[in-house]
Description:
Blueprint: H1 2-10, H2 19-35, H3 40-79
Amino acid sequence: MANDRAAATCGVAAASFGLGARLAAARRLGLGWFRDTRGSDLLEYALLTAAIGLVGLAVLNGVTATIGRAYGATTTSVNGLWRSPAPSGP
């Protein structure tokens, strides 16, 4: 019964559901999947989004390092500008 349903969905008669027929049905199913263009726009948008995300991560890592170096240099130079006054004692 299950073979009858599987054969009917693949377009193969139940009586000829041997190894050759199974391979032919698998080939038709595989070629149909590759020829089907439904959802290709979604896949293209997903790939584009992933590429933009990877480029964004690379840019963010570079910008973060540059900001860190600039902040460190500014902190070092600002700390050298001010000297604490000598404590006045009694």
